[in-house]
Design a protein that fits this description.
The protein is built from 7 helices and 4 strands. It has helices spanning about 10-20, 40-45, 65-75, 90-115, 130-150, 160-175, 185-195; strands spanning about 1-5, 30, 55, 60-65. A hairpin with a 5-residue loop joins strand 3 and strand 4 (about 60-65). The chain is globular and about 45 Å long. By secondary structure, it is of the alpha+beta class. The chain has a 4-stranded mixed sheet, covered by helices on one side. It folds into 2 domains: about 1-75, 3-Layer(aba) Sandwich (Glutaredoxin), CATH 3.40.30.10; about 90-200, Glutathione S-transferase Yfyf (Class Pi), Chain A, domain 2. Helix 4 packs antiparallel against helix 5 and helix 4 runs parallel beside helix 6. About 50% of the residues lie in helices and about 5% in strands.
Amino acid sequence: MKLHEAATAPNCRRVRIFLAEKGIEVPVVPVDLGSAENRQDAFRQKNPMGRVPVLELDDGTFIAESVAICRYFEQLQPEPALMGGDDPAEAARIEMWQRRMELEVALPIMQVFRNTHPYFADRIQQYADYGESQRSHATKRLAWLDRELADREFVAGDEYSIADITAQIGIDFGRVTKFRVTEETPNLLRWHQAVSARPSAKA
C-alpha cells in the first residue's frame, strides 16, 4: 500500500491528518504538481481526473478522492472513530458537518486560490470576479461557523472528527490568499488554536 500525494495540496493534508489521528503510517510517493506530473499519462492511469491524493492498494486497486480514502481507513481501523463509528445517526451528523465544511468553507477558499493566484494562470481559465465573490462568501461562512462554535468544542459536537479536519485544511490553505482567523471571530479562533495544537496538525 502507498499514498501518491503532494505536500502542498490541502486534500492530501486532509488524509495525512486523518492518518496521524489514527496512528497509521503509509509509505508516500511524492507527486510533483509544479511540473504537472499529475497530468501525465502515467499518473492518469491511477486517477483519470489527474488529482491527488491517490491510495494504491497492494492488489493494484487505486482509490482517489480524499474523503473516500479516509473512509477506507475508518473501516480498516475504526478507532478512534472520526466518521461517526457504528452509530448511524452520529455518522450521518458528522457527514452532514463534513459536507458543510467542504462546500461552504474549504471549497470557496480554494476557489479564491484557483481563480486569483498566479500559480493557476497558465493552467486553467481563471475568473477573477468569481474568485473575489468566493472570498466574500467564505468570509461570511467563517462568521457563521464562529457562531456555530459558540456552544460546542468541535465542528460536529463534543468530539473531534473529520469535519474538523476538513475545516482546518480549508482555513489553513487560505493563508495563501490572505485569509486569517482573528479575534473578530473568537469562537473560531479558540477552535482553530485547539485543532492546530493537536500533533496531527503537523502532518
